[in-house]
Write a structure and sequence with these properties.
The protein has a domain at 10-63. It has helices at 10-22, 27-36, 43-63, and strands at 79-81, 84-86. The chain is mainly alpha-helical. The longest helix is centred in the middle third of the chain and has 21 residues, at 43-63.
Length: 90
């Protein structure tokens, strides 16, 4: 992500764009999230960043999508039946 000639660090820009793309957050909610971290930025600036850098992020997300050959491990499964917890045996 080429963030040259921007006022904010590339990490901040990437985080703001990631929040806007990955989660269904409005621009103002992203602005509030950054403000909680002490970063004062306008929602309009975030909109410009998203317009400029979203395609790059979208390509990265598509590249990392799970495939059928991926292996997932579950540590523990608890099933609640009629208010009682049950642990299935292997």
């Amino acid at each position: 992500m080429a963030c040259m000639r921007h006022r904010f660090a590339p990490e901040i820009i990437a985080h703001a764009v990631w929040l806007h793309i990955r989660f269904p957050l409005s621009l103002r909610l992203v602005q509030d999230r950054l403000l909680q971290r002490g970063i004062i930025v306008s929602y309009e600036t975030i909109r410009c960043w998203a317009a400029q850098f979203s395609p790059d992020h979208a390509r990265r997300f598509r590249r990392r999508m799970a495939s059928r050959t991926d292996v997932w491990h579950l540590d523990e499964v608890v099933i609640k039946i009629s208010g009682q917890q049950h642990w299935p045996t292997s």
